[in-house]
From TrEMBL:
One of its GO terms (biological process) is polysaccharide catabolic process. It catalyses: Hydrolysis of terminal non-reducing alpha-L-arabinofuranoside residues in alpha-L-arabinosides. SUPFAM superfamilies: (Trans)glycosidases, Glycosyl hydrolase domain. Pfam families: Alpha-L-AF_C, ASD1_dom. This is non-reducing end alpha-L-arabinofuranosidase. InterPro entries: Alpha-L-AF_C, ASD1_cat, GH, Glyco_hydro_b.
Length: 346
């Protein structure tokens, strides 16, 4: 921390200057370890020992730079770990992190499309732990969630084979992660992938060339067209059952509202493999204008991929729709992500 952020004439700040950087880097976010519960970690610890060690380092780090924000290690599969860590560290940390990687090893499309159930249950669990441990703290001052590792990862699960190639169904699952983050945006304040280029990544490169993987496009769409505040959305649609009897609605929806721009954005995933779904979209506050900008991620086949030779097998279709109102009909194509941008006036 002193090396990166120190501004005084101290040993590590001076070492940074000697190495060619005069001004501080001002690194804001710092993680207190990584997956310390895991047997794959050389420094594996149980929750109690991890929390005690993390508290010591948190005190030291904030003493060097009180402006930094600290992220403790959470565990998406163990609420007891999270409870013990939060109970010990709630006064010293700003975020608790969880990680999740998913895949379609069984090549079962509809089971894979039910991944959002797992994402939602993990977020609900961690939010419940935060609320339980910090019940006497105002909600807006409680520790937040950093979902700081997540992706589809199952084909290339070896150190020497990490160049995962993604298809359309993978992109739909990435879209589900992003929709969940929007629905839980009062808790989830950080949500990032750990690798961006070549290694389980949205961008693939080689000397003199690159292509965008299918999972690049959900990022592009949702990041560019969702601003302002997240909205609750009521969805009533048909569903299907998984083997564990859980009901999965065919439509997965999130929404946001940008008051400054007067725009309402709907992000809709149609999980149905073969069928379009006709819907009625109803807005209950303000007046929706006629024009809708549409950004649609789809392809003919759920297994469609991009590669260096065929870079546009999967991509975003842009078009407009001119018949919107506070209640209008729209048909979402099968196995697709569609983002609708609507104009809303008071």
């Amino acid at each position: 921390v002193e090396y990166c952020n120190g501004s005084e004439e101290t040993y590590y700040a001076d070492l940074r200057r000697e190495n060619g950087r005069d001004s501080p880097y001002k690194v804001k976010y710092w993680g207190l370890g990584n997956e310390m519960y895991g047997e794959w970690q050389i420094g594996q610890l149980d929750a109690e020992d991890y929390a005690k060690k993390a508290r010591k380092y948190a005190k030291l780090m904030k003493r060097i730079d009180p402006s930094i924000e600290l992220i403790a290690v959470g565990w998406d599969e163990d609420p007891e770990w999270n409870k013990k860590v939060l109970s010990e560290l709630e006064d010293y940390i700003d975020y608790i992190s969880i990680h999740m990687y998913v895949g379609n090893e069984e090549d079962d499309y509809y089971s894979y499309m039910g991944t959002s159930k797992k994402i939602e249950s993990r977020l609900d669990m961690l939010e419940g732990v935060i609320d339980s441990v910090m019940s006497e703290v105002p909600k807006d001052e409680r520790v937040k969630i950093a979902f700081d590792e997540w992706n589809v990862w199952y084909r290339a699960f070896k150190e020497d084979l990490l160049e995962e190639r993604y298809n359309l169904e993978d992109a739909l699952v990435v879209s589900m992660f992003l929709n969940s983050f929007l629905r839980h945006c009062d808790y989830v304040k950080i949500a990032n992938q750990a690798q961006l280029v070549n290694v389980i990544a949205p961008i693939m490169t080689k000397k003199g060339d690159l292509f965008l993987q299918t999972i690049y496009y959900p990022f592009s769409i949702l990041a560019n067209y969702n601003k302002g505040v997240g909205l609750d959305v009521h969805v009533d649609c048909d569903s299907y059952k998984l083997e564990d009897e859980k009901e999965v609605p065919y439509l997965d929806v999130s929404a946001s509202y940008d008051e400054e721009e007067g725009s309402l954005t709907l992000n809709v995933i149609n999980r149905h493999r073969e069928d379009s779904i006709s819907t009625v979209i109803e807005n209950q506050k303000g007046e929706v204008g006629n024009k809708v900008d549409i950004h649609e991620l789809s392809a003919k086949d759920i297994k469609s991929q991009n590669n260096f030779e065929e870079k546009d097998n999967v991509g975003v279709i842009e078009r407009t729709f001119d018949d919107a109102s506070n209640r209008f009909s729209y048909e979402f194509p099968p196995h697709s992500l569609t983002t609708l941008e609507l104009e809303v006036s008071e």
